Amino acid sequence: MSMNLSQAFDEIVLKRRSNRRFDTAIQVPDEVIQKSLERAILSPNSSNMQLWEFYWISSPEEKAQYKKLCLGQSAARTAAHLVVFVTRQDHWKKHAQWNIDKIKASMTGEPSKSEKRALDYYGILMPILYRTDILGLSTLIRRGITFVKGFNNPFMRFAGLADQRVMVHKSCALAAQTFMLSIAAEGFDTCPMEGFDANLVKRALDLPNEAEINMIVAVGKGTEEGIYGKRNRLPLDEVVFKR
Asked: Which residues form the Nitroreductase domain (predicted)?
């Protein structure tokens, strides 16, 4: 059975290509997008904070708007659906509390040692990692903790706002990859796009300044002309180093 699963996954990975022109005569059922988004939220993410949002663009009116926002590229022009992957590190307080509530709901009586550690993790550590302020005091505190704790020992080097951004974008990108593999498994195609006006996309979605666009994924039934050449990759021995 494991071999069958391995072969099935191999087929999905080999099938998934960034297709830049879709067949507009073939529709992608809403059920395919729904199922793929349900799979995407199961993706691994940092501390289960799930600091992401996925905006499913399916109406003809909004798709027409996004053609322009995506700079007129063919993947956006011909897509049956678009999904905008967004990072929301500004939701850290709400999501930390959600995790705390989940832990407490599963408790019977006083918290065990592991439950106490989990509660402290979300109640103490997450505020240290994600809190920000105008004066930058939170960043200075993180830098101080990193310096002291990491002076003679390995320690997570996490201090500034850039570290927060990298962390939430990594998690969001993992969800986008799960989504694209799911679409491939359902017999359709995708094209992840970085060519878009992020400011105008945020405005169209009515997002706050703290939110950021990770990527926009176009979905449809791919065409031969939508594949721009072979999928060339560097040799394995140039990028993989076994130690």
From this structure: 14-221
The model's pLDDT over 6-18, given as tens digits with 9 standing for 90+, comes to 999 999 999 999 9
| Distance from C-alpha of 142 to C-alpha of 139, rounded to nearest angstrom | 5
Query: Does residue 45 contact residue 175 with C-beta atoms inside 8 Å?
Result: yes
**Cα–Cα distance for residue pair 201/179, rounded to 1 Å:** 20
72 Cβ contact partners less than 8 Å away, ≥ 6 residues apart: none
- Three-state SS string over the chain comes to CHHHHHHHHHHHHHHCCECCCECCCCCCCHHHHHHHHHHHCCCCCHHHCCCEEEEEECCHHHHHHHHHHCCCCHHHHHCCEEEEEEECHHHHHHHHHHHHHHHHHHCCCCCCHHHHHHHHHHHHHHHHHHCCCCCCHHHHHHHHHHHHHCCCCCCCCCCCHHHHHHHHHHHHHHHHHHHHHHHHHCCCEEEEECCCCHHHHHHHCCCCCCCEEEEEEEEECECHHHCCCCCCCCCHHHHCCCC
Q: What is the predicted pLDDT for the residue at 235? A: 97
pTM over 0.85: yes
Cα 216 to Cα 73, 85, 119, distances in angstroms: 12, 6, 35
